[in-house]
Write a structure and sequence with these properties.
The chain has helices at residues 11-14, 19-33, 54-67, 84-88, 96-100, 106-109, 130-134, 137-149, 165-169, 187-199, and strands at 42-47, 72-76, 111-112, 118-121, 152-156, 175-179, 204-208. Strands 3-4-2-5-1-6-7 form a seven-stranded mixed beta sheet, sandwiched between helices. With 209 residues, the protein is an alpha/beta fold. It starts with 10 loop residues before the first helix and ends with a strand.
Amino acid sequence: MAPRTSERKIIALSNPKSPISESYVKLRTNIELSAVDEPIQVIMVTSASPGEGKSTTAVNLAVVYAQAEKKVLLIDADLRKPAVHRYFMLSNRTGLTSLLTSRTSKLEAIVEGAVPHLEVMTSGPVPPNPSELLASRKMSSYIEEFRKEYDVIIIDTPPLNAVADAQIIAPIVDGTLLVLQSGSVKKDHALRAKQALELAKTRILGVVL
């Protein structure tokens, strides 16, 4: 399968000096400053509802970490509506689902990103049982392996109010970023997302508005 045409630009690559790119750099810095006592190595990025910019945030955050010469792995764990492969013009034929179902090796599932120090694992084919795959022992075991190999691991997950997938992943990460679209997200939806993260006992690093 040929790589898909990219539908979305990565602003941190296309215009690294722009105010938006600088905002992602500030986000990276704020995360690093909040990790005084405990290192924040595995970061989950989610949103309250679809279309709020979680994948855009995950991709650009991964790029600015890599630009700071951190060894980064970006994982697309949105197994229902994956988007990461579109940013990097990658095939989504193999990826996380292929790895979790033992259809491919770790080396085959991970590809180079568009910047030095960045590697990407796309979601792979959409499975019939995404929640079960993410809740599997294999998923948590691979994250532990990746901790030994990368400085930063960023995981893009589905919206909290749509499915339970992000709550399933939350316990195995060090912190979560909640992305909300200004002027669009309803207050009760934002509060429901926050409560879902609190129930999952994950550390909320902050909100990206």
